[in-house]
Amino acid sequence: MTKMILTSTGLASQNIINQFLKLINKPASKIKIVFVPTASRTEEELKYVEESKRELLDFEIEEKNIKTLNLDNPIKYTEIKDYDVLYVCGGNTFYLLKKVRESGFDKIIIEFVENNKLYFGVSAGSILVCQNIEIASPGDENDVNLRDLKGLNLVDVIVSPHYCEKERKDVEKFKKKSKIPVVTLTDSQALLVIDGKKEIIE
């Protein structure tokens, strides 16, 4: 069973938290998380990473059960096989995809999901698992000159995080040219994907 929760800002509502716990089916103190902050490079982005980590700790997940991976070196699946959740933070989507490919972590993510583990994406981490990451522009600058914008193709829609009224025009324009359906998520929503079935959680 493939399980993903794709969000704009993380555990933003009680319903998202409930779904998170239900899918893992363990007490919070026993949950083991691989935490990937790689997409965040600026001071502001790193502030959100700290908020995400604090959210998990407030939620009674133990610090010793959170393994931080920065994707600076090649990763082997054996390093994360005993963990329950892969939590991929937000930041610059182009940089994230570049680092995921360079470290071979793209294959690790796919194997993790195929082994019935939970993938939890935040913003860039949510866009990453779509068929392509084009929607990240113009919000994220492609300052790593990434040409191949194919994502990990683990979900058959494009996720547009942080959706709000001022983004409506750009998103509608993108929808018209996209051959893949677009799902917009506000900062308090998440897309739940279980074995290809999709549901918006408020």
Task: Provide tags for this entry.
202 residues, alpha/beta, Rossmann fold, seven-stranded mixed sheet, two-stranded parallel ribbon, 6 helices, globular
Rg over CA atoms, rounded to whole Å, is 16 Å
> What is the helix fraction of residues, given as a range?
25-40%
Structural class: alpha/beta
CATH topology heading = Rossmann fold
Percent of sequence in beta strands? 15-25%
* Fourth-tier CATH superfamily name: Class I glutamine amidotransferase (GATase) domain
Strand order of the largest sheet: 3-2-4-5-1-8-9
Gap between N and C termini, in Å? 23 Å
Query: What does the overall shape look like?
Result: globular
What is the CATH C-level name?
Answer: Alpha Beta
Order of helices and strands: EHEHEEHHEHEHEEE
Number of helices: 6
Q: What's the domain count?
A: 1
Average predicted local confidence, pLDDT: 95
Q: Provide the low-confidence segments as ranges.
A: none
- The total count of strands amounts to 9
* Annotated CATH architecture: 3-Layer(aba) Sandwich
Specify the biggest β-sheet. 7 strands, mixed
Descriptive account of the structure:
- The protein is α/β, with parallel strands linked by helices.
- The strands form 2 sheets. The protein has a 7-stranded mixed beta sheet with strand order 3-2-4-5-1-8-9, with helices on both faces. A two-stranded parallel sheet has the order 6-7.
- The protein starts with a strand and ends with a strand.
- The model has no long low-confidence stretch (mean pLDDT 95).
- It has 6 helices and 9 strands.
- The longest helix is centred in the first third of the chain and has 16 residues, at 43-58.
- It has a single domain, classed as Class I glutamine amidotransferase (GATase) domain (Rossmann fold), CATH 3.40.50.
